[in-house]
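User: Show me sequence and structure for the first protein, then do the same for the second.

Assistant: Starting with the first protein.
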Amino acid sequence: MKTALVCGAGGFIGSHLVEKLKEEGFWVKGIDLKYPEFKKSMADEFIIGDLRDPQICKQVTDRPFDEVYQLAADMGGAGFTFTGDNDADIMYNSALINLNMVNVALKAKVKKYFYSSSACVYPEYNQLNPTSLNLKESSVYPALPDSEYGWEKLFSERLYQSFSRNYKMNIKIARFHNIFGDYGVYEGGREKAPAALCRKVALAKEGESIEIWGDGLQTRSFLYISECLKGIRKLMDSHFSGPVNIGSDEMVTINELAEMIIKISGKNLSLRHIEGPLGVRGRNSDNELIKKKLGWAPNYPLVKGIEKNYLWIKNEIEKATSTQ
């Protein structure tokens, strides 16, 4: 039986990844500061621990795992990442986790290692026009991410690439583009745009308006969780190391995303634009490289994923309301 360690197994993507690996027959150990919030973990062993502590990292890599997935990071949506208030924690905490984990993975002779980077590594100057973007993997330099979160991700990419070169570690790197889906946070400040908008629509009464940060013309693409997991597994089973984009190339404005959710809800709602943290003006996954190297690219329609996510969040809100 193959063995896998998932770092960040209590988080949204990590908890889904544990499930995916179990379905494929892996024995899985998970570690995080917390258990998954909405669903019991399927990990064979789950450790509550802080990967900023090198002793904890050494403890969890107690065997030469076939595969390690490093998804643990201090992160959140625009309301957390782009205010500037959390920059020091984001840089320090995430960098420390990666410095610790790559070192212990080397010593434990881990066979394959996956690192989840982010589209936030791409330079801000290529994302100022919401309809004309350059997010090919090779466009990351000259570097100018729009946030400290992006700078830390780029530093860690280079950290892992240097260990791969110097110590012949088999390390794979993917740049995630706005992954969303069920069992992800939808309130509290760390939620991403799809979850936040689904929550706002679910809570809104007929005829009310929902708040949109900025003018709503900023563009993004959003990838449903099942497609993200397919991409991760295809990369891990390939001879390609990356970095590679894992994201949808179905670009929408935030206004269009909000209108899509309103239509799914069946409510008559309007949009009200307010000031708020925005990030770059436009972002969309360039999938040319993933098609070339993996013979695959995400193709799950956004509306299908959003419908599933809206219904799940609506149900969670109704359950919480009924118990109050």
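Switching to the second protein now.
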Amino acid sequence: MDPEKVNYHYCDDLSTNPLPEGTRVLVTGANGYVAHRLIPELVSRGYIVRCMYRNNNCPPLLTHPRIEHVYADCLNMEELLPALQGVDHAYYLIHSMRSKKEEFVAKDQLAAKNFRESAEQHGVKRIIYLGGLGEKNDRMSSHLRSRREVGNILSQGNIPVIRVRAAIILGTGSASYELMKSLTLNNRFIPFLSEFNSVCQPIAIRDVIKYLVGVMETPGLGTRVFQIGGKDVLTYKEMILSFAKILNRRVHFIDVSLLPIPVDLLCRLYAYWLNCFISIPVNITYLLLDSLKTDVVCEDNEISTILPFKTLDFVTAVQWAQEKEKRSMVFSHWSDVPPENMSDLLPLCQFESSEFIIEEHGIDIPATPEQVFPVVCQIGGKHGWNHANFLWEIRGLIDRLLGGVGLHRGRRDPAHLRVGDSVDFWRVEKLEPNQELLLRAEMITPGLSWLQFQLDSDQNGGTHLTLRAHFIPKPFWGNLYWVVLSNFHSYIFKGMLEFFKKKSLQISAP
């Protein structure tokens, strides 16, 4: 995809000038939410952009003569050293929020140390790190504490490190935005803790990108910290009420502070409760809630003397995000990154397991593949699963209760798919227009699952649509799981095919 097709042109009015032609910029975490917004801006300003992914199971979305793709895990120095060769400036956008608490702190610190040492060996001129506001507070969450430590580790070398600290980032697809939207849309009564009276200075994603690009292009900056925030300073309650007003919803807060339960445990229970109806994983939800106990506001506005532009207020940021959703202009989404335990899975074509279980169903549809394929690609999200949706909802609820992603993760776009997109508890592994859609399961099962839709033209100009469920069972439990659900699978899959036929005939009718 050409990056200009998804470039929001945040930096067109930036006061700084692009660095000399041929400047190579490394963007780590290139499949993440912020990186997906940053990369098109850098390409548009003339830079050679090297996108770094942890593994090759996250396919690049953008292609351009000035875009390079490298694969390296910051926990592996042998992979990291070649990735930084020839790099002038680097954005460090890596964190391990998806890991368990006892894991992400150690991973964050080792990754930062390896990155700093590799950057020093290759003479990188500047590192820009996006951290969190509130990193000086004694009551900071473990998430903020880890981010502060990462910034300290990166700054211990001889390379200038610009630490940009932001609070809640507002934009279509950001975790904070989706959390507030889910709370507002799915609840009339919202639990409230007195600790959530802390104030926050949220910032729009467009302003974050402008600051990130601007500090790279400002000459003479040494190692320092810049605090960035939007126009408004709000409490958690004020943000939710403002969000609800924009969505024309009425919500009420229930104070649960009087319950004789420690605050940390209440936050954890709150996260698990939210987990039943919102799309964000419970560990990320907990970290976001835990951060609400700390004031996260800008203590100085020094960056405005270097990059003097007006940031958006909360209401405008949310309204613009809503408008992009209505116009299907959501390019990056928090769910673009697979769950931690799913990120290293091989694609279906690379498995040579003799334990494969394959269930196949087919149907002939008197419509062309060009008419059938868009119907197939609308599954999931708000469209549902076309047949036996109640059974899908039960499966999604079970997955959430087990700690999985569930059905509420939805889709980035209601009509269009791309490789790497999440579709409820599936992810698009392969997409060949009018020929094949392959989904890999990210639900919790005793095995590995794929759902494949293959379209073949027949001699009469129609389409033979084949649905194949692939499953590699774990010993005993996987086989038992498949046997128990086999009748449900057949009922669901045959019904889906009949729906695709009916819908395709409606579209193809003159």
